[in-house]
Automatic annotation (TrEMBL):
SUPFAM superfamilies membership: ATP-dependent DNA ligase DNA-binding domain (SSF117018), DNA ligase/mRNA capping enzyme, catalytic domain (SSF56091), Nucleic acid-binding proteins (SSF50249)
Active site: 254 (n6-amp-lysine intermediate)
Cofactor: Mg(2+)
UniProt xrefs under NCBIfam families: dnl1 (TIGR00574)
Record-given protein name: Probable DNA ligase
Organism of origin: Ktedonobacter racemifer DSM 44963
Binding site for ATP: 259, 274, 304, 344, 420, 426
Length: 583
């Protein structure tokens, strides 16, 4: 396939205002693809990458280098290019404009050729890398049309935001392959275990016959080095409700740090976030501890990393731990603020998947695998509980130790990748008057205010949640009061490049903000109550009102560990609404 065809599809996706069209456009594109390798490349490119999300393969080109490449590829000076950038605000658009003016003949360039150049840019490292990357980009820009240049540049800068989610791509794959959108569920299950859209697409294309393809997909399994989607927790209001619903449970302390999935393959260790990001280089002490403490050649562990002072038995607050999420000065920070990893599950050991093992058996394997526990890797203590009183005591104990609460797990349950169900339930302490949990909302737009706020660029934020069934974002609140000037500044900084002149295709809102934002930034919001509101679209069916947050306040930014699709879902909001009265 010519890359220009893919670029045209990207252009159409950007201009679309409905999710159904998104799926249709992607399906039409996929139908034109013949080769397994090509479909794999296209899936990665659609995610703005040249490898699956979890591979730490970044382009490593700053804006300045791209500006220079654009100047070199055109007959313009760096100043002229910089000026155009100031006007257009997007280097992709600058690239398209320049290509439109050039008299150079445009050549037919295939998806594979562009992918290979982009991949080489990403892989180029070491001495002289900046120069080499620039030469590669200039070489590419010399040959392609305007649209192709636009999207190549956006991918290089890590700024391709097509507004399609994984679910859209999975839908399109299911329709292309089986003419059946319902088969998305099958693909989704495999995606949760493999986290690699390219691999799934490639496997489908390698097996032209429908049933054969289904078998091949079903055989894709957990593998060391490839993160699986984390099991997530539901909420219940009280210890009584938990015992009533779950029966015998395994209760563990709830640690407030980073979720870490640790993969050991001999001496090679990798660490992934719940967002599938590769964090391996950030936590040298956990790498070292995994090498020495884990009694297995191969293992996949699930846990939470946080700063803990073993002498005073103090758990440091999340704000402290979060200082370790950095790419530079890692060694120094590791000394200043060493982390412990509290390991609460094991998903794989020496060639065998443990996902289908009942919880108690996995925990037994975990103890055997990390026998010496008071170290950097600490096996989380599990308490078997079957009455509400003991559970409450344990909860109080957790709170008194400065922890967030408990995670309670169903006896006998399997590990379900990516699922949020009543196999795991979290109970947290909550502030008086507040809901029993915070909400992870997605920024969908700004509403301009008056006076001082207007000068800062915003008066209120339009915030949504994720409607997982329909794969779209719906509104749940506006946040205005209570935001500090610092928070406003931070919001402006984080939303750079996200404003868009039309309502994004996967956003459903009755409120029109002054500026729409592409859904990307996840914020943690605490509210007093959930109420019904005709103005908001979360959970809105027909003429019935939707659900809205009362007295919302911004607690923290979560965009580093959550994708917009990881935000709180409509279903969760409705459950929280129904639970309110019962607390
Ligand atoms: P979620 O992960 O459910 O989307 P969240 O990121 O806001 O929500 P919490 O509401 O704090 O996180 O609760 C779940 C998280 O708690 C898990 O993802 C994990 O990172 C953390 N956690 C801490 N201790 C445990 C434990 N013992 N078992 C499972 N998870 C734990």
């Amino acid at each position: 396939m010519e890359f220009a065809v893919l670029a045209q599809c990207f252009e159409a996706l950007e201009g679309t205002s409905s999710r159904r069209n998104l799926v249709q456009l992607v399906t039409t594109l996929f139908r034109q693809v013949e080769h397994p390798e090509e479909i794999q490349q296209i899936c990665y490119l659609m995610q703005g990458r040249v490898a699956p999300l979890f591979m730490p393969l970044e382009m490593g080109m700053a804006e300045k280098a791209v500006l220079q490449a654009l100047a070199q590829a055109s007959s313009h000076s760096l100043e002229q290019i910089t000026e155009r950038y100031a006007t257009l605000g997007d280097l992709g658009l600058v690239a398209a404009q320049i290509q439109g003016e050039t008299e150079q003949p445009i050549q037919k360039v295939s998806v594979n050729e562009v992918f290979t150049v982009l991949q080489t840019i990403a892989q180029t490292a070491g001495k002289g890398a900046i120069e080499k990357k620039r030469v590669l980009l200039v070489g590419l820009l010399d040959h392609v049309d305007g649209e192709s240049a636009k999207y190549s540049v956006r991918i290089v800068l890590g700024k391709l935001r097509l507004g399609i989610g994984d679910a859209t791509i999975l839908d399109a794959l299911a329709i292309t392959k089986w003419n059946d959108a319902k088969k998305r569920k099958l693909l989704e299950g495999v995606y949760h275990v493999t986290s690699d859209l390219g691999l799934i697409a490639r496997t489908l294309w390698e097996h032209p016959e429908a049933e054969e393809a289904q078998r091949a997909i079903a055989s894709l399994d957990i593998a060391v080095g490839r993160p699986i989607h984390s099991q997530l927790a539901e909420r219940l209001p009280t210890a009584e409700a938990i015992i009533e619903k779950m029966g015998s449970v395994v209760a563990q302390y709830k640690y407030d740090g980073f979720r870490v999935q640790i993969h050991k393959n001999g001496q090679q260790i990798a660490i992934f976030s719940r967002n599938l990001e590769n964090l391996t280089d950030m936590f040298p002490e956990i790498l070292e501890a995994t090498r020495t403490q884990v009694q297995a050649e191969q293992a996949i562990l699930d846990g939470e990393a946080l700063a803990y002072n073993a002498t005073s038995e103090e758990f440091l607050p999340f704000q402290e731990t979060t200082r370790r999420r950095r790419k530079h000065g890692v060694a120094l920070m590791a000394q200043e603020l060493p982390l412990k990893a509290f390991v609460f599950d094991i998903l794989y050991k020496d060639g065998a998947s443990l996902l289908e093992y009942p919880l108690e058996e996995r925990l037994k394997v975990l103890e055997e695998t990390i026998p010496q526990t008071r170290n950097t890797l600490m096996v989380t203590r599990s308490h078997l509980v079957d009455d509400a009183k003991s559970l409450t005591l344990l909860f109080d104990e957790a709170i008194s130790k400065g922890l967030e609460g408990l995670v309670v797990k169903r006896w006998g349950s399997h590990y379900e990748a990516g699922a949020r169900n009543y196999n795991w339930v979290k109970i947290k302490r909550h502030a008086a008057g507040a809901l029993d949990d915070t909400i992870d909302g997605v920024l969908l737009g700004y509403l301009f205010g008056r006076g001082k706020r207007a000068a800062l660029g915003a008066g209120a934020l339009l915030v949504g949640v994720y409607d997982a069934r329909q794969d779209r974002f719906v509104t749940v609140t506006k946040i205005g009061t209570g935001l500090s000037d610092e928070q406003w500044g931070s919001i402006r900084e984080r939303t750079k490049g996200l404003p868009t002149d039309r309502q994004p295709a996967r956003v459903f809102s009755l409120i029109t903000p002054s500026v729409w934002l592409k859904p990307a930034i996840v914020i943690e919001v605490l509210a007093d109550e959930i109420t019904r509101s005709p103005n908001h679209t979360a959970g809105k069916v027909g003429d019935e009102p939707g659900y809205a947050l009362r007295f919302p306040r911004l607690i923290a930014f979560r965009d580093r560990d959550k994708q917009p699709e990881d935000a709180t879902t409509v279903e969760e909001v409705i459950e929280m609404y129904q639970r309110q009265g019962k607390r």
